[in-house]
């Protein structure tokens, strides 16, 4: 990849990077509210964001740089199987339409900042809340690390990644600078920084995709030629497995995998702390429901982006590391200056989710570990301070992770993270609709799901890895190959239901529920909602 | 007593059934992979498998919008009837 530095692309990239850095720091003054030192301000942007800001923020948050690199890379490597990301993001919106407004309402009435806050309030169980918090932090860390992998891919293709023999410090310097800057403005501006930068990120991404999806097929002779080339490549037999390298449509045995991956991932997405943080920062439950009707625009973009994987094949891109396929396609196809714009889109695309993820993980630590277990009488100022520091530590941790360990370790952990975070679904979504599940049963179900999922993932081998070789395995009873997270959540639910019957029969102590039915449908302006949010007049500035 | 009957005032209404169907349809369509795992018919050279799923992004968006509009109308109707019933008797709380 290191054929010399692409100067024009690098200059354009740096210009955009400097611009968003300035925006990141100025964001602290944007829509400023009276009480700066509360966690609601730093960690949730004052809970004041309207429809459009929420749309950009959630879009910038969920469709990460890693997604942009990894989804087409999966298509490039194996064809149809990688396209599951599209049905996955289709299924997400009916789901959030159903349960997120309830979470928003109960969180506003009780001042919850994290999902664990809700779980503790609903079940009166610090243990269950701790389990949810730890799962959230564990699942988020490798996700942040993967954003760095996304930036690295772009830097590599621009020729500033350094070769094999470059001193490690020189090689990683650009990444260190990028992350230093990110850490500094997240610290000073909180959630307002990624919210503002998301505008730039998404505008760039939409622009690049629109150009790529028209310009590249014209250069390659149309979609007919593109899919013909892809079909030819997928028919070649892989020497190690003795099977074709890919397929244009999933064959019969792969369809269960496809469907369970789509469903399992859709259920997991809004268990991630960063999705919840972006959701709770909106100013009313209307904003969330309205967003489910406009967020799918990102899914359409993701589908088009996935097709770039086929274009990379047709354009004859040959890379050892599949993740470089799309950046390399941009570099080969676009004039240098526009390649620079495309790289900036991916680079900035990494900064927005990384900032939100680190804020979300920090909020979890502060609210559900620090305040619940270490310092119950912490003031809002102390909470905010701890959150700011933890957001730094989380990022440093991710950086060390990427710099010291092999990239595949981060990918393995992210795969595990998806399985893990899904195991919090019964406690959270179950709790939004019913109080029937017993807190101890939920904890047991969670533990069983975590252990089962981790073990199953450990036993999957691939041609290149002995363990954690993939996320699909034969499902018990059904006998088809399916997503491990899906089998684990089914097992988790069975354990939870059976144990709830048992615990209810023996009248085990149920815990105090501090919420009431009307909390789940309350909207901004209702009694008990307004006093806890800062005055909405701040939003008019 | 009045709390349960008030909140549950016809919990399953035709409108709510339509909302549920709108939200459920994408799951049936997308999880039934066998129904769309084929190459033909292609659209401007793109195999059916790909353009069909992208078309479903638009279809599910339309369905969610219908659900949203119906849900809002449902909420407003409920709020209106709740207000009028409190004005009538004031004993419903």
TrEMBL record, chain A:
The chain crosses the membrane at residues 6-28, 49-69, 75-100, 128-148, 168-187, 199-218, 256-273, 294-317, 337-365, 386-405, 411-433, 440-461, 481-503. It comes from Streptomyces fragilis. It is a multi-pass membrane protein. Belongs to the sodium:solute symporter (SSF) (TC 2.A.21) family. Keywords: Membrane, Transmembrane, Transmembrane helix, Transport. Residues 510-541 are annotated as: Disordered. It comes from the Bacteria. Pfam families: SSF. It is found in: Membrane. This is Monocarboxylate uptake permease MctP. The gene is mctP. InterPro entries: Na/Glc_symporter_sf, Na/solute_symporter, Sodium:Solute_Symporter.
From TrEMBL, chain B:
Keywords: Membrane, Transmembrane, Transmembrane helix. InterPro entries: DUF3311 (IPR021741). The chain crosses the membrane at residues 17-37, 49-71. Pfam families: DUF3311. It comes from the Bacteria. This is DUF3311 domain-containing protein. It comes from Streptomyces fragilis.
């Amino acid at each position: 990849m290191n054929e010399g530095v692409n100067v024009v692309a690098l200059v354009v990239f740096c210009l955009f990077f400097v611009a968003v850095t300035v925006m990141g720091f100025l964001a602290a003054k944007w829509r400023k509210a009276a009480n700066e030192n509360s966690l609601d301000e730093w960690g949730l942007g004052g809970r004041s964001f309207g429809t459009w800001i929420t749309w950009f923020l959630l879009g910038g948050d969920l469709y990460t740089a890693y997604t942009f690199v990894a989804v087409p890379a999966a298509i490039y490597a194996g064809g149809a199987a990688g396209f599951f990301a599209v049905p996955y993001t289709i299924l997400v919106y009916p789901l959030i339409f159903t349960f997120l407004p309830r979470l928003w309402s109960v969180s506003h009435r009780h001042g919850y900042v994290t999902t664990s806050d809700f779980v503790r309030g609903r079940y009166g169980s610090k243990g269950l809340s701790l389990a949810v918090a730890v799962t959230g932090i564990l699942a988020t860390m490798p996700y942040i690390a993967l954003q760095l992998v996304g930036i690295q891919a772009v830097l590599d293709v621009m020729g500033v990644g350094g070769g094999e023999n470059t001193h490690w410090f020189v090689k990683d310097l650009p990444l260190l600078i990028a992350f230093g800057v990110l850490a500094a403005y997240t610290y000073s501006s909180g959630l307002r920084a990624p919210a503002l930068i998301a505008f730039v990120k998404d505008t760039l991404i939409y622009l690049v995709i629109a150009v790529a999806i028209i310009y590249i097929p014209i250069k390659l002779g149309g979609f007919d030629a593109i899919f013909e080339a892809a079909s030819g490549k997928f028919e070649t037999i892989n020497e190690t497995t003795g099977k074709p390298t890919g397929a244009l449509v999933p064959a019969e045995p792969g369809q269960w995998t496809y469907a369970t991956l789509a469903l399992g991932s859709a259920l997991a997405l809004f268990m991630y702390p960063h999705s919840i943080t972006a959701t709770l920062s909106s100013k009313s439950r209307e904003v969330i429901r309205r967003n489910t009707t406009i967020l799918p625009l990102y899914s359409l973009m993701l589908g088009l982006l996935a097709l770039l994987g086929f274009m990379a094949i047709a354009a004859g891109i040959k890379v050892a590391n599949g993740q470089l396929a799309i950046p390399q396609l941009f570099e080969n196809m676009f004039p240098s200056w526009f390649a620079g714009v495309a790289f900036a889109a991916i680079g900035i695309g990494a900064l927005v989710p990384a900032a939100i993820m680190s804020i979300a993980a920090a909020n979890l630590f502060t609210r559900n570990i620090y305040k619940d277990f270490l310092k119950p009488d912490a003031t809002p100022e102390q909470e905010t301070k701890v959150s700011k520091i933890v957001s730094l530590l989380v990022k440093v941790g991710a950086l060390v992770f990427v710099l010291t360990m092999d990239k595949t370790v981060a990918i393995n952990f992210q795969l595990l993270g998806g399985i893990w975070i899904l195991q919090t679904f019964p406690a959270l979504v179950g709790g939004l609709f019913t109080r029937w599940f017993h807190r101890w049963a939920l904890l047991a179900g969670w533990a069983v799901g975590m252990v089962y999922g981790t073990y199953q993932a450990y036993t999957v081998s691939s041609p290149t890895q002995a363990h954690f070789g993939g996320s699909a395995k034969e499902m018990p009873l059904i006998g088809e190959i399916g997503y491990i997270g899906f089998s684990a959540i089914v097992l988790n639910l069975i354990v939870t239901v059976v144990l709830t019957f048992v615990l209810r029969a023996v009248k085990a102590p149920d815990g105090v529920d501090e919420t009431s039915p009307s909390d789940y449908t309350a909207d901004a302006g209702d009694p008990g909602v307004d006093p806890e949010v800062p005055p909405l007049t701040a939003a008019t500035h | 007593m009045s709390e349960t009957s008030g909140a549950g005032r016809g919990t399953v209404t035709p409108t709510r059934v339509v909302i549920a169907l709108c939200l459920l349809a994408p799951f049936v369509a997308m999880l039934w992979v066998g129904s769309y795992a084929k190459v033909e018919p292609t659209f401007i050279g793109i195999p059916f498998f790909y353009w069909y799923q992208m078309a479903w992004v638009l279809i599910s968006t339309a369905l969610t919008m219908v659900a949203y509009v119906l849900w809002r109308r449902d909420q407003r109707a409920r709020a209106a009837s709740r207000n009028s019933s409190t004005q009538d008797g004031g004993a419903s709380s």
